[in-house]
């Protein structure tokens, strides 16, 4: 597919599938939401909460917090700058509680797909590096080389990788949370001739690993769905819903002169939830739209992977930071286990 065909296909898909919906009219949004965390331990507890990032498409407007903590404050780690609210609780206090309110303003994310080779800035180069869960050599490099063979520019290469991820993975509703995002385990499945199941962190992670192996800086971005989706009602919360506790979602982006947003996981989610067959016009539109755009219902936390929080956690490194993270006397809690780690995320307005 050349660039003209790609763009023509995107336009045709828009008219065919969503003729009554203009994404160009999507306005800037402002959303307030809260965290309420309860930790039922008579021991020393440390808690780290991900906060919304400040970017060119999003701004944290206000933040306030109160609770039974010994001390609390906001921090950023030195490598990725992940914004964090940190709190410490003394063992002699009963239930450890913190209530956090924040307001975020954000706007639509879409870019022009401009061909060409672009220099990679020094601060972007770290997103070419491997990490514990994101390998860039061996099998992943072999697959990336095969997928991108003959492709001339980062846009063409990234599209080929994105299309491969969408076609070679499926959404597995049995996976907890966003999935572990462990590319090493996914490669083992491929070695056995299987197809990669998982959720958003899994599909975004394999996209990122393949891009990095092909020489394209890329990163996952962890965040939260806070509004109903416009592309498909199956993607996000329902209209009027307030509970955001299980609304975490991981997206991705790659560098081609600027950060280009993609969301392969939401393509696989639409395919499952709407029971669409390969080649269906709605599915083809979603695939094209979510390469260079994000559906305007989500806020970003951070793009940190396999890293050390600030202040430093005892159990290091942390795989990713899309959920609250806590340690009881140095031992990590399972953020997906509600009996031991009780928290609620609620939309306020």
UniProtKB/TrEMBL annotation:
Name of protein: Transglutaminase family protein
Transglutaminase-like domain location: 192-266
Pfam families, A to Z: Transglut_core
PANTHER family (UniProt xref): TRANSGLUTAMINASE DOMAIN PROTEIN, TRANSGLUTAMINASE-LIKE DOMAIN-CONTAINING PROTEIN
Alphabetized SUPFAM superfamilies for the sequence: Cysteine proteinases (SSF54001)
